Amino acid sequence: MFNRTVTFALVGFFVWASFASAGMTSTNYEIRWDTISTGGSDTSSSASYSLRDSSLIGPGGSASSSSYQVSNGYRAGIFDQIISFDLYIQNSNNERAITSISGTTVSMSSTTGLAANDYVAVVQDLGASQVVGIGKISSVGVGSIVLDSLAVGASSPAIDGTNDHLYQLNGSSLTLETISSTTVGTGIIGFEVTIDNDNGYSIQILENTNLQSGATAISDVADGTVTVSAEEYGARSSDTTVATSTFDTADTAITSSAQDIVTKSTFGFDDRSFLVLKAGVATNTPSLIYSNTTTFIAAGNY
């Protein structure tokens, strides 16, 4: 049994997006909002609170067309932009067989324990070559659930009822599926990001040590594929467009240096992606409990 413990750091940054607006810009500066007003405004703050105050003569409101919007009134141009970042970890103790998928409707023998707003992973052919999609449950019926959408990687899962499973993504740490010299163990970490930044965001990964037990460690994958009967550990991202690492196209070693696993070039709202972690062992690999701590960092692109 190999236990893979995951802890994570949520790093949020205040970011300013580059909207197309009637602002004034130069190479290094931008005045995002021009104001015509008979009053003034100021911002006051303390350790815990911030107050924006204005004096203004004139009504508030807005007017818009298909391409433009004009806002007038009290602090119409104030908009705090932040990044929100949530992790959803596979609960390997909550596994159930699924029989088919049609669009975002997933069929199974029992939906007991599932509820609307649960995050779940749909897995085709559990193991080294599994195909994954993640989503949030919109509704639960008799023998099926409906997802709000299905975020996938290079391909979408095709469910035929043979070695296909659904997992709730509500774990606090990740235990990989059964690992042996004949089986590659896997686990899924889902991400959801909301950011109002026209340049998008990046998610990075790093680890404190190799996957290990005391002085005994599982080797990092070096050939791009975690395979049966080989002692190696790595991960692959659902994002197929990462230019700064190989997580998009190959099983890649996680190191103590931060590496990109997801890169997006536009703003996102409840933008979902995921990472599949994989571990294999050889016949002579000691049977121990292996673990490490993995950190995920999300930040806006500038």
Describe this structure in words.
- It is a single chain.
- This protein has 302 residues and is mostly beta strands.
- Helix content is 0%, strand content 40%.
- Among the domains are: 89-170; 174-302, Jelly Rolls, CATH 2.60.120.
- The strands form seven sheets. The chain has a six-stranded antiparallel beta barrel with strand order 8-9-12-11-10-14. A four-stranded antiparallel β-sheet has the order 7-15-21-19, with no helix packed on it.
- A hairpin with a 6-residue loop joins strand 10 (119-124) and strand 11 (131-140).
- The radius of gyration is 23 Å and the shape is globular.
- The two termini are 43 Å apart.
Tell me the layout of helices and strands:
Elements: E1 24-25, E2 30-31, E3 41-45, E4 50-54, E5 61-64, E6 69-72, E7 83-89, E8 95-102, E9 105-108, E10 119-124, E11 131-140, E12 144-147, E13 151-152, E14 165-168, E15 185-195, E16 201-207, E17 212-213, E18 216-217, E19 232-237, E20 259-264, E21 268-280, E22 294-300
Antiparallel strand pairs: 1-2, 3-4, 5-6, 7-15, 8-9, 8-14, 9-12, 10-11, 10-14, 11-12, 11-13, 15-21, 16-20, 16-22, 17-18, 19-21
